[in-house]
C-alpha cells in the first residue's frame, strides 16, 4: 500500500486520494465542497491471526476407550480383557496426534489425554493381574521337608515338589498318610491323614481337608494320576475344625473317587493354609500293591466261603476213618442198650414174680448182664468223647488254616495300605 494523502471529510472517509506531498494542507473536498485537512494514513503493521482449532474425533474416541478400560482394569484377570480396548485407544490417539499436527484443524488435548489414560489403564491391568498371579503361584509352592518312615529327614533337591515319603514336615507341623484304603462298600478311595503339632509351646488351629470350604481363597485337597485324571472329593459336610495342642495330633480322612486301573502313581495335594502354613503339601504314591493285596483278600474270602459251604476235611482220610469208628461204636452202643433193656426187663420179672426159688436163681444172672452192659456202655462213652475230640481238632485245624489264609491276605492289604513307601530311607 502507497503512502497517499487522504481527505478527512466524513463524506469521503478517505476514499479520495491526493499526492503525498499535499499532506497537512487544507483543501476543499471535491466531493462535498467542505474544507478538510489532508493526512497520510499510518501503514498498518503485520497482524498475527490465531486460528482456533476444533476437537479431535479420534482423540475423543481414544479418551472414551481409555475411560472404559480404566473402569475394569482394577479387576484381577478380568482386567486383561481391557487390553484390546486400551490398544485400540492408543492407535486412535496416535493417529489423532498426527492429524492435529498436520492439518491444524483439530487440537492435541483429547488425543494426548486418550493416550495417557489408555497407557495408564493397560499398565494397571497388567500390574494387578501379574501381582495376583504371583500370589497364586506363591500359594502353589511347597517348602515341605520329606521324612522317612524311620523319622529321618530325607535329602532331596529343592526342585523336587512331590514327596515320595508318606511323611512331610513344614515348620512344627508333621503331616503323614496313615492309611490308603479302597473300601468294598463304597466306590471310593479313602486317605487317612494325621497332623501332629511338634511344638512344645504353641497350639495350632487346623481345618480338615475332608469337608466343604467356603470363601474366595478356598482351596481343597486334590487327587490326580499320571494320566491327568482328576478325582472328585466325596464330602458330607463342612470341613471339621480342630485345635491341636503342643505334642498332640489330629486325624482327617479324605474320600475321593476310586482311581482308574493301570495307573503308575497318584498325586495328593493339600493346602498348608489349613494348619496356618504356606503353599501346598504334595505326596506321590502308588496303589498297585494295594490293588493287588485287595484282590488277594477277595480271593481268600471266596476260598473261605467255599470252605464253609463244602468243608474239605469231610473227605480227609483220617476224618473218614474216625467217623466210621464213631458210627461203629454208636451201633454197638445201640445193641448194648437194647441188651441192657431186655436184661432189666427179665430182672424185674423174676424179682417180683413171687417164686422165691426162681428169684434167687435167676436174678443174679440178669443183674450181671446189666452190670456188664453198663461197664461196656461207660467205656464206649469214653471212646465217643475221644473220637469227638479228634473230629473237633481236625475241624478246628482245617478252619484255622482257612482263616489264617484270609487273615494273612487282610494283613498284607493292611500293610500295603499303611506302608506306601516302606523302602524309602
Structural write-up:
The chain has four domains: 5-39, no CATH class; 57-140, no CATH class; 145-286, Immunoglobulin-like, CATH 2.60.40; 308-418. Helix 1 (57-72) runs antiparallel to helix 2 (83-103) and helix 2 (83-103) runs antiparallel to helix 3 (109-140). Helices cover 44% and strands 18% of the residues. The strands form four sheets. The chain has a six-stranded antiparallel sheet with strand order 5-6-7-8-14-12. A four-stranded antiparallel sheet has the order 2-1-4-3, with no helix packed on it. A four-stranded antiparallel sheet has the order 11-10-15-16, with no helix packed on it. The protein has 425 residues and is of the alpha+beta class. Strand 6 and strand 7 (173-181) form a beta hairpin. The protein has helices at 57-72, 83-103, 109-140, 288-309, 317-351, 356-418; strands at 5-7, 17-18, 26-28, 35-39, 145-147, 167-170, 173-181, 188-197, 204-207, 222-225, 230-231, 233-234, 241-244, 249-257, 266-271, 280-285. The relative contact order is 0.08. It contains six helices and 16 strands.
How would you concisely characterize the structure shown here?
It is built from 6 helices and 16 strands. The chain has 425 residues and is of the alpha+beta class.
Tally of alpha and pi helices: 6
Largest sheet: 6 strands, antiparallel
Return residue spans where pLDDT drops below 50 for at least 5 consecutive residues: 154-159
At the first level of CATH, what is the class of the largest domain?
A: Mainly Beta
Count of discrete domains? 4
Shape: rod-shaped
| CATH architecture descriptor of the largest domain | Sandwich
Structural class: alpha+beta
Separation, N- and C-terminal Cα atoms: 110 Å
Task: Please name the CATH topology of the largest domain.
Answer: Immunoglobulin-like
Give the strand order, joined by hyphens, for the main sheet: 5-6-7-8-14-12
Total beta-strand segments? 16
Radius of gyration: 56 Å
Mean pLDDT: 75
Helix content: 40-55%
SS strand fraction:
15-25%
Amino acid at each position: 500500500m502507497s503512502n497517499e494523502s487522504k481527505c478527512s471529510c466524513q463524506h469521503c472517509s478517505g476514499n479520495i486520494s491526493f499526492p503525498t506531498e499535499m499532506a497537512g494542507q487544507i483543501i476543499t473536498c471535491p466531493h462535498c465542497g467542505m474544507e478538510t485537512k489532508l493526512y497520510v494514513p499510518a501503514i498498518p503493521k503485520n497482524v498475527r491471526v490465531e486460528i482456533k482449532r476444533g476437537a479431535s474425533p479420534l482423540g475423543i474416541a481414544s479418551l472414551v476407550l481409555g475411560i472404559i478400560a480404566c473402569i475394569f482394569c482394577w479387576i484381577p484377570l478380568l482386567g486383561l480383557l481391557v487390553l484390546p480396548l486400551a490398544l485400540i485407544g492408543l492407535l486412535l490417539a496416535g493417529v489423532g496426534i498426527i492429524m492435529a499436527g498436520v492439518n491444524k484443524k483439530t487440537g492435541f488435548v483429547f488425543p494426548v489425554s486418550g493416550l495417557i489414560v489408555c497407557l495408564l489403564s493397560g499398565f494397571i491391568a497388567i500390574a494387578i493381574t501379574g501381582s495376583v498371579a504371583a500370589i497364586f503361584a506363591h500359594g502353589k509352592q511347597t517348602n515341605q521337608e520329606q521324612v522317612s518312615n524311620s523319622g529321618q529327614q530325607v535329602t532331596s533337591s529343592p526342585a523336587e515338589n512331590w514327596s515320595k515319603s508318606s511323611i512331610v514336615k513344614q515348620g512344627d507341623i508333621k503331616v503323614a498318610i496313615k492309611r490308603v484304603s479302597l473300601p468294598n462298600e463304597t466306590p471310593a478311595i479313602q486317605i487317612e491323614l494325621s497332623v501332629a503339632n511338634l511344638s512344645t509351646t504353641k497350639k495350632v488351629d487346623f481345618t480338615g481337608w475332608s469337608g466343604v470350604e467356603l470363601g474366595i481363597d478356598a482351596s481343597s485337597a486334590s487327587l490326580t494320576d499320571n494320566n491327568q485324571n482328576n478325582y472328585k472329593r466325596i464330602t458330607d459336610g463342612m470341613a471339621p475344625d480342630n485345635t491341636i495342642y503342643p505334642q498332640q495330633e489330629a486325624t482327617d480322612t479324605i474320600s475321593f473317587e476310586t482311581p482308574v486301573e493301570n495307573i503308575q502313581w497318584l498325586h495328593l495335594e493339600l493346602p498348608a493354609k489349613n494348619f496356618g502354613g504356606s503353599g501346598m503339601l504334595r505326596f506321590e504314591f502308588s496303589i498297585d500293591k494295594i490293588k493287588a493285596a485287595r484282590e488277594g483278600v477277595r480271593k481268600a474270602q471266596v476260598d473261605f466261603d467255599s470252605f464253609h459251604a463244602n468243608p474239605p476235611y469231610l473227605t480227609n482220610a483220617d476224618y473218614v476213618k474216625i467217623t466210621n469208628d464213631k458210627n461203629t461204636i454208636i451201633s454197638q452202643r445201640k445193641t448194648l442198650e437194647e441188651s441192657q433193656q431186655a436184661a432189666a426187663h427179665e430182672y424185674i420179672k423174676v424179682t417180683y414174680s413171687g417164686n422165691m426159688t426162681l428169684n434167687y436163681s435167676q436174678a443174679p444172672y440178669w443183674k450181671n448182664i446189666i452190670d456188664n452192659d453198663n461197664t461196656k456202655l461207660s467205656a464206649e462213652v469214653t471212646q465217643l468223647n475221644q473220637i469227638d475230640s479228634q473230629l473237633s481238632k481236625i475241624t478246628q485245624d482245617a478252619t484255622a488254616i482257612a482263616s489264617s489264609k484270609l487273615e494273612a491276605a487282610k494283613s498284607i492289604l493292611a500293610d500295603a495300605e499303611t506302608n506306601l513307601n516302606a523302602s524309602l530311607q
